[in-house]
Every structure is written in C-alpha cells, then in structure tokens.
Amino acid sequence: MTFKAPDSLSEQIADYLAERIIQGELAPGERIQEQKVTAALNVSRGSVREALLILERRHLIAILPRRGAHVTELSAHKVQSLCALMSEMYILLGTAVAERWKAQADLAPFLVIQQRLTASLERKDIKAFVEDSFNVMRATYPFADNPYLQETVENLQPAMSRTYYLALEQRKATMGDYMHLFNSLLEAVVARDLPRIRQVLGDYTQRSCQLVLAALAAD
C-alpha cells in the first residue's frame, strides 16, 4: 500500500486502521500487532507506533502494558456516554450555524452534502452515508470558530462513526430516518429556530443510540 501527502504517514496509517475498525473488519478485543502492520504496509515501526497513539486518542484502541494494542470493546455504557456527549456538541455546532449564517451562500455546503446523502441513501451506500454525515459536522466549524470544540469532536468522530456503521449495517432502512432528521435540522437552521435545533439533534442522537444498542444486543 502506498501513502502520500498531505497527511503524515502516521495519520494515514491511523486512518487505514480506523476504517477497518469502523467497518468491523477488526473486531472488538482483537489485537493489533505492530510487526504485522509494519510488514503489511511496508512502513516503519515508529510510524505504526505513532498511528496507534492516534487511534488510542480517538478511542478506537486501548494500549495496555505487556498486552499491546487491542480494539476497544463497545458496551452499552460507552455508547450511551458517547451519545450524550455528542448530542450537546452537535447542538453547540448547529446553534452556531443558525446564529451566524448571513447569506444563502453560507448554507451552500450543507445543501451539497444533503444531495450527496440523498444519493447515498438511494444506493444504500453506508460508507459514503456515514462519511457525509460527519462532513455536515465539519461544515459547521467555521461558524462555531472554536478550536477546542473542533478538536474534541474530531477525536470522538471515529468512535461515533463506528457506532453508526454498526447500526446501519444491520438495518439499512434506518438511513431514511437519519435523512429525515437531517432535512428537519436544515430547515430549523434556515429558520434560526434554536429550540427546534435542540429538539431535532436530541432526537437524532437518541435514535442513533437506540439503534446501536439494539445492534449490540443482536450480536
């Protein structure tokens, strides 16, 4: 596998491993061995070690003394805790857009992503759908202008992607529910309806949490 700029080599390795974890190719509890990753990707062990630290910061693996790196387990408590925190951060981001957009052009990125989400829904393309769900979030960063919030959300995003993917893989029909909630959110942002934004995003994360818990129970 060949890695290229602009991301550092360690970040690219981390993204590669993160995708495998998010999509379930690396199972909870599975060990990630530095030597095997080094040989498979033809990279240095130092770069792999840095990549594993990135994944630990993103809550996708745990690195334990004398046991090495293992994919983190998904438990009901972890899922509920993550959803509760992400709900409040989503509300902060959504509120920032509603309060600060000035011209229709400011909303153009969200409309483009809405079109891509609709296309992914029609194709039942889970990977693209999950990626664009978080591209919505990234489009809000310039409005919030809060580097601490952005860093926190980015570090938690892979863990949240993992839970979404798990839920949608088992029930592709629920992509339509997410799409309906996003459309409602966009309407509320355009109307600058802050209570509605909180309600929609609360419903969104609650629905997500319920689907993930149901998927965990089904395993």
TrEMBL record:
Any idea which GO molecular function terms this record carries? DNA binding; DNA-binding transcription factor activity
Give the InterPro entries listed for this entry: GntR_C (IPR011711), TF_FadR/GntR_C (IPR008920), Tscrpt_reg_HTH_GntR (IPR000524), WH-like_DNA-bd_sf (IPR036388), WH_DNA-bd_sf (IPR036390)
Sorted keywords for this record are: DNA-binding, Transcription, Transcription regulation
Q: Record's Gene3D superfamilies?
A: GntR ligand-binding domain-like (1.20.120.530), Winged helix-like DNA-binding domain superfamily/Winged helix DNA-binding domain (1.10.10.10)
CDD domains, alphabetically? Answer: WHTH_GntR
What are the HTH gntR-type domain coordinates in residue numbering?
7-74
The regions listed as transmembrane in this protein's record are: none
Domain of life of the organism encoding this protein: Bacteria
Please name the Pfam families in this protein's record. FCD (PF07729), GntR (PF00392)
Instruction: Identify this protein by name.
Output: GntR family transcriptional regulator
Source species: Pseudomonas eucalypticola
